[in-house]
UniProtKB/TrEMBL annotation:
It comes from Methanothermobacter thermautotrophicus (strain ATCC 29096 / DSM 1053 / JCM 10044 / NBRC 100330 / Delta H). Belongs to the SLC41A transporter family. The chain crosses the membrane at residues 55-78, 140-161, 173-195, 207-231, 238-259, 271-290, 348-369, 381-405. It is a multi-pass membrane protein. Its main location: membrane. GO terms for cellular component: membrane. This is SLC41A/MgtE integral membrane domain-containing protein. The lineage of its organism: Archaea, Methanobacteriati, Methanobacteriota, Methanomada group, Methanobacteria. It is found in: Membrane.
């Protein structure tokens, strides 16, 4: 009797154990099947994303790589300017703002010219018209006025943070002369790029804006180099006072002429000036971040070569995103909501893929060129790691800034050519340099 009870208990326990094991196996099988289905669906989505975005990714990566060459040349100039950064204290505070300002002013000009060509208010032969004249006049006025403001801001930031610095007249003369010289090259270059973009059917969102921004990077540093040569001839003398006074008068006269000009000129000046003032402050903040690590940067000039490259490519990425989102909002493809979905998320994916590719590439480029030119490098592994780490920290910020600025611009009915690209790139600069400094501190153990 006892034996029978034990046998029944054992059979019952065995049955329960087998049932539990079977249930567990079934649950595992279902979970695995669901996982495989999800993985399959995800792979299909990724495949569909890459098929649909192949042209955009190809165009954008080629444009970014071409821009990287321009940014790299600017980086080489900056790397070779190490002695000047010591001779002209505070110059590094000015440089990022100057680089960003050229891209902002002339990038907006390129966008306006591209829009004018596509809607027919400008002819492909660029015959003289009020619209063309207003765009050119507005760009010249903004270049002088913002260069003046940038010189003042650089001096003020140096005083606020206790940095050793040049005088306010030195900053102003360097900034304005550098702006005039670079503007003389950038104005025809911007017109040419816009025209060729229209003639060849290039997507202005993916190609034109980054190319113009890279041109700004390319011409700005040599122009500052030339401005320093002019400053050396007039520094601490009567002629520096005269130049300072002339620049102030020209800036004031230009601003008055802009506010009293034709409708298009007034619109450009009124919408651009407040935005570019904010951009100048943000650009100077970016320079302040770099200047805080000046001694390490001077000991490792390859970091100087990486700075314009990293900031330029980050600005190009957020410009591409902002331009694509603005186009989508105005064409109705992207809804004006506060939560990104659909086509907006697809554009996020495009920028994420480009970020994964471009940041290691520019770190390696900075090392190779620095090594070739005898500029002290931290080594290929460290340079790639610094660039990649900083870039991947920065990417979520790029996505959020690009999306919410585009949405706000659309909701407020502001011209995205004058608002989105300048503000997004300028907001990116200080954050990009902060990420770069954090990556350097983390990897180099400073």
């Amino acid at each position: 009797m006892i034996f029978m009870k034990r046998r029944e208990r054992l059979l019952r326990m065995t049955r329960i154990l087998l049932q539990s094991l079977l249930t567990f196996t079934v649950n595992i099988s279902i979970a695995a099947s669901r996982g495989w289905v999800r993985a399959f669906n995800l792979s299909r989505k990724f495949g569909s994303f890459f098929r649909d975005s192949r042209r955009i990714l190809g165009e954008s990566f080629v444009a970014l790589f071409i821009c990287a060459i321009g940014d790299l040349i600017a980086g080489i100039f900056l790397g070779k300017m190490s002695p000047m950064l010591e001779s002209y204290p505070g110059l590094l505070v000015l440089i990022p703002g100057a680089i960003g300002m050229r891209g902002n002013i002339f990038g907006a000009l390129g966008s306006r010219l591209g829009s004018g060509l596509h809607i027919g208010v400008l002819s492909p032969e660029l015959r003289r018209s009020d619209v063309l004249a207003d765009n050119i006049e507005g760009t010249i006025i903004l270049t002088v006025v913002m260069s003046l403001f940038l010189g003042f801001m650089a001096w003020i930031f140096c005083q606020l943070f206790g940095f050793e610095s040049m005088g306010i007249m030195d900053f102003t003369v360097i900034s304005v002369i550098g702006g005039i010289i670079s503007g003389a090259f950038l104005l025809p270059a911007t017109v040419l790029i816009s025209l060729k973009s229209y003639e060849n059917g290039w997507d202005p969102d993916n190609v034109t804006t980054p190319l113009i921004a890279a041109s700004g990077d390319l011409f700005t540093l040599p122009s500052i180099f030339a401005a320093l040569a002019v400053l050396e001839m007039v520094r601490n003398g009567f002629f520096e006072w005269i130049l300072f006074a002339i620049f102030l008068l020209i800036g004031a006269a230009g601003l008055i002429a802009g506010f009293r000009g034709r409708y298009d000129l007034r619109k450009i000046i009124r919408q651009s000036v407040p935005v570019l003032l904010i951009c100048s402050a943000l650009g100077t903040t970016a320079g302040t971040v770099l200047n805080s690590k000046l001694s390490f940067i001077l000991d490792n000039p390859a970091i100087l070569a990486l700075v314009p490259l990293f900031s330029g490519e980050s600005g190009d990425l957020v410009s591409i995103l902002g331009a694509r989102l603005s186009s989508g909002l105005h064409s109705g493809i992207i809804p004006a909501s506060l939560r990104p979905h659909g086509e907006a998320l697809r554009n996020f994916g495009i920028i994420a893929v480009l970020s994964l590719l471009i940041y290691p590439t520019i770190g390696l480029l900075a090392h190779l060129v620095s090594d070739f030119l005898g500029i002290g490098s931290l080594g290929p592994f460290s340079m790639v790691l610094i660039s990649s780490m900083a870039g991947y920290m920065l990417t979520p910020f790029l996505l959020l800034v690009g999306f919410y600025l585009s949405s706000a611009s659309y909701r407020l009915r502001l011209d995205p050519d004058n608002i989105v690209i300048p503000l997004s790139t300028s907001m990116t600069d200080p954050v990009a340099n902060t990420c770069l400094v954090i990556a350097i501190i983390t990897i180099m153990g400073l």
